[in-house]
Amino acid sequence: MTTAHKEHGPAAVAEGSVHSADGTRIGFRRVGSGPPLVMVHGSIATHTDWMGVARLLAKRYTCYAMDRRGHAHSGAGTLPYFIEREYEDVCAVLDAAGPGAMLAGHSLGAICAMGAALLHPVPRLVIYEPPLPAGGPIAREHRMAYARAIAEGDPDTALEIGLSNFSGLSAAAIAAIRAARAAARSSRILAAPGGIGAGRAA
Fold first, then answer.
1. For residues 51 and 67, is the Cβ–Cβ distance under 8 A?
2. b/e code 69-101 from CB counts within 10 Å (16+ = b)
3. How far apart are CA 31 and CA 39, in angstroms?
4. Are strands 125-128 and 36-40 parallel, antiparallel or unpaired?
5. Do residues 195 and 189 touch, judged by C-beta distance below 8 A?
6. For 42-59, b where at least 16 C-beta lie within 10 A, e where not — what string?
7. At 17, which CATH number?
8. 201 falls in which pLDDT band (50, 70, 90)?
9. Where are the beta strands (DSSP E) in the chain?
10. CA end-to-end distance (rounded Å), the chain
11. Is residue 172, in this structure, part of any structural domain at all?
12. Which end of the chain is less packed: N or C, by CB atoms within 10 Å?
């Protein structure tokens, strides 16, 4: 495991990483002190979605907000994709966090957390909005279109199919998600060393 400390507001945030069972680098941000708590984000998020919660809990817990494979500071992983590899990623961060580490997951991250807990039992597990179908299959006739978009390397279309047909979001809600993602990408570019905003402070 590797870590490097940076100051982000009142609490020191350590940047760290571990390697999963298949060798994929899994990044995380660590903040706080106390019993360890690993946090797993959802499909179209990164560790940043958990950082507000992590800072609120920092006086009581050592929070590890991880990036799932293919997101932010983690590697893309090996092909073909199997969700079981994501379970192993979470287990790798749990091992880094140490004995007694607890686990929290949101959306698809909740599924990853549950899968990891079967491999690496935890004393506490918190899951928020796990996408588990309560009334039967949710993909139905849209499954093939979704799979085709993935196979053709068109994740944007796949995401729209999933949000509209699997999650039942409205066109307005999907447009808002797109706008938020675009704004986040722009912010990262502006803030990046050597990026568009570099040197403007002078």
1. no
2. bebbbbbebeeeeeeebbbbbbbbbbebbeeeb
3. 12
4. unpaired
5. yes
6. bbbbbbbbbbeebbebbe
7. 3.40.50.1820
8. very low
9. 2-8, 11-19, 25-32, 36-40, 62-66, 102-106, 125-128
10. 37
11. no
12. C
Single pTM value for the model: 0.75
Does a structural domain hold residue 188? no
Of 138, 76, 88, give the one whose Cα is nearest residue 113: 88
Could you give the C-alpha distances from 99 to 7, 37, 67, in angstroms and in order?
26, 11, 21
Task: Average the pLDDT over 120-136 and give the result.
Answer: 88
pLDDT classification of 187: cutoffs 50, 70, 90? very low
Domain count along the chain: 1
Residue 39 one-letter amino acid: M
Classified as helix, coil or strand, 168 is coil
Provide the residue range defining the domain that includes 71. Answer: 2-132
